[in-house]
Description:
Layout: E1 5-9, H1 13-24, E2 28-32, E3 44-47, H2 49-57, H3 61-67, E4 69-70, E5 76-78, E6 84-87, E7 102-105, H4 106-115, E8 121-124, E9 131-133, E10 139-142, E11 145-148, E12 151-154, H5 161-166, E13 171-184, E14 196-199, E15 203-209, E16 215-222, H6 230-240, H7 248-254, E17 261-269, E18 276-278, E19 283-286, H8 289-292, H9 301-315, H10 321-350, H11 357-366, H12 370-381
Parallel strand pairs: 1-2, 1-12, 2-8, 5-14, 12-19
Antiparallel strand pairs: 3-7, 4-7, 5-6, 9-10, 10-11, 13-16, 13-17, 14-15, 15-16, 18-19
Helix pairs in contact: 1-4, 1-9, 2-9, 9-10
The chain binds flavin-adenine dinucleotide (FAD).
Amino acid sequence: xxxxxxxxxxxxVGGLAAAVALVNAGxxxxxxxxxxxxxxxxxxxxxxxxxxxxxxALGMGAALDxxxxxxxRTGGLRTPEGRWLIxxxxxxxxxxxxxxxxxxxxxxxxxxxxxxxxDNASIRTGATVTGLRLGDSPAVKLGGETLTxxxxxxxxxxxxxxxxxxxxxxxLVGAGRVAWRAVVPRFRAPDVVDGGETQGSGRRFIYAxxxxxxxxxxxxxxxxxxxxxxxxxxxxxKRWFAGWHEPIGELIAATRPEELLQHPVEFVDPLPxxxxxxxxxxxxxxxxxxAHAMTPDLGQGxxxxxxxxxxxxxxxxxxxxxxxxxxxxxxxxxxxxxxxxMSRGVGGVFAAQxxxxxxxxxxxxxxIPDKTFAKGASALTDWDVPTA
Length: 388
Ligand SMILES: Cc1cc2nc3c(=O)[nH]c(=O)nc-3n(C[C@H](O)[C@H](O)[C@H](O)COP(=O)(O)OP(=O)(O)OC[C@H]3O[C@@H](n4cnc5c(N)ncnc54)[C@H](O)[C@@H]3O)c2cc1C
């Protein structure tokens, strides 16, 4: 088969991973990124066993080992007073449910993905895609310029132009919550001996050791994006999480305003009718947040984007583009639909607030044996590299 060409819109985790997968499958790839520099935000990602497996399938096992900090057996779920409800001590069905989790700095992952691209991929930065033409021969528009390819991959994130072109009913919906994230550099961070998640009334806090980078933390609260400056937001977080077990207060206090990132929690609803558009010989695929942005409750968004990328590479390795895209849709749809439902369900439980509901949630969670919890987590990570 002649060398086939793809245009990937967006150089986030999903777009870069898709480019690696397609190059590995023999494609020539051009990546278009609207920002002037290739960069990830200054936070971290938890990669569950499925995300780790996907990166290994891309041939990035050694690169991952060099940047990943293992999280097994250090975390779990706690109350604000610090009482453990669930410990991450069980391995689950595949021996890896919770214990295969790692944390990486997003920038390290970005750089590792770029390094894995090889010569058959090129990246254009400062290239904002302004339109996508569907039909038999898909094309992307960059201002006055039009680029055609055998395949266009829409990996343009949560506010995806590609998604709205394929199905404008698939919209972004606010979850009524806000998330904050930061990495506190090692020299300023308190020592942490564990990690995991702490749940209070309508608020939660997560932290993880990020090795040489320091400590990563994320917090969530009900409400809308705060208009205050970062200094004001840190003050609010200090008040909201006052009295929670350490090192939560210490981590917030050690965070500099310029290190704080704030986001509304949003998700795509309904999912696009299809993640693909197949023409006669070419087509378009959606991937990552562009296809299925979810609330971060399962911590699986980037892991699913990596799964998408590997699956796309497998499906388009040998088959014609339309057949490969149909197979991609068939393989991804059931898992994505299930994960999207679960993430919303879990989000509802985590965001619970009130004098009666929260103690009830605590009692229920305390009643779940660690082994059962690990089994549930194994269901989330239960993904293998598919066959075409
Ligand atoms: C608070 C929070 C915590 C999270 N924690 C985790 C976690 O621990 N583990 C996990 O697996 N997931 C996590 N996620 C989810 C994860 O961040 C996303 O699912 C993942 O980053 C999606 O990657 P992506 O490549 O699809 O999109 P993005 O990373 O958003 O990349 C999209 C890229 O496309 C570019 N772009 C957009 N429009 C255009 C255009 N028109 N032209 C050219 N370029 C364009 C953007 O500049 C960007 O570079 C979290 C999310 C949040 C909000």
